[in-house]
Amino acid sequence: MSSTVSRAIQILELCSALPRTAADIAADLGVHRTTILRTLLTLQDAGMVRQTSPGVFGAGFRLAALARSAMENFDLRAIAHPSLAALSAKLGLTVQFAVPNRDRITYVDKIEPANSIVLNTIIGGDVVINTAGVAKAILAFSPEREKAMILERATFERYTERTITNMTAFDQALEEVRQQGWAYDDGEYDALSNCIAAPVRDHSQRVVGAVSITSFRSQADIAALKQHLPALIATTTTISNDLGWKPASA
């Protein structure tokens, strides 16, 4: 790949993640600002980037249109759904799938079998960052810049006596997730429910989502839910494999 094309791709990735100036991009890439600006203006003429404010470049409308077109042929939810449905049917428990979405984490699928807990979460709705197992499973393995963007929106509001209400405690929870490879919510948003969650990765080893299993706390505490961890990990591994993931050592 030519250096010019490679640089243009890097610029598109940066501008899509967060609008920024030519100077910001130049600093990130270690390239002279004039070179970056020249590429930005070429991308702007093609509709791939636009100025969200004077001198600040974000994703262009044409790029967004191309992304929507691509998603019609590559739908993460569609890829994951059969595995999620199989997991829910096997366990008889509620299963949710959430993905990072710029500065938030969003639920994109949910399966609530008969006699399982019914949650007030909404497909397309935002995850409560400081309480959800899926949020911890994603953020524990996210790049620092992306994690910071999402955490800037976190209010650390208290919902139950178990809610994590400060960044220090949340960082400790994320370190625990990194060590064990899975996360949990032990009645931190709703005293009636708890869950375990595990990350989903793509071909680049990037965490692109997380799957959770949720139950009534009166029926299964975290220790009991942990009995389902092999099934959960098998499901997230299957979805990850479908996205081209291979173990880093492979």
Q: Give the overall pLDDT as a whole number.
A: 91
The number of distinct structural domains comes to: 2
CATH topology of the largest domain: Beta-Lactamase
Widest β-sheet, arrangement of strands = 5-4-8-7-6
Question: Which CATH architecture of the largest domain is right?
Answer: 2-Layer Sandwich
Number of extended strands: 8
Distance from N terminus to C terminus (CA atoms, Å) equals 25 Å
Q: What is the N-to-C order of secondary-structure elements (H for helix, E for strand)?
A: HEHHEEHHEEHHHEEEHH
CATH class value of the largest domain: Alpha Beta
Strand residues, percent: 15-25%
CA radius of gyration is 20 Å
Q: Largest sheet at a glance?
A: 5 strands, antiparallel
Helix/strand-derived category reads alpha+beta
Give the key terms.
single chain; 2 domains; Beta-Lactamase; Arc Repressor Mutant, subunit A; alpha+beta; elongated; 250 residues; 5-stranded antiparallel beta sheet
Quick recap:
With 250 residues, the protein is α+β, with helices and mostly antiparallel strands. It contains ten helices and eight strands. The chain is 45% helix and 20% strand.
Notes on the structure:
The protein is of the alpha+beta class and 250 residues long. It folds into two domains: 3-68, Winged helix-like DNA-binding domain superfamily/Winged helix DNA-binding domain (Arc Repressor Mutant, subunit A), CATH 1.10.10.10; 75-242, Beta-Lactamase (2-Layer Sandwich), CATH 3.30.450. The chain is built from ten helices and eight strands. The protein has helices spanning 3-17, 22-29, 33-45, 61-73, 76-91, 133-139, 144-151, 167-180, 222-225, 229-242; strands spanning 20-21, 49-53, 56-59, 94-101, 104-111, 183-186, 193-201, 207-216. The chain has a five-stranded antiparallel β-sheet, sandwiched between helices. A hairpin with a 5-residue loop joins strand 7 (193-201) and strand 8 (207-216). The model has no long low-confidence stretch (mean pLDDT 91).
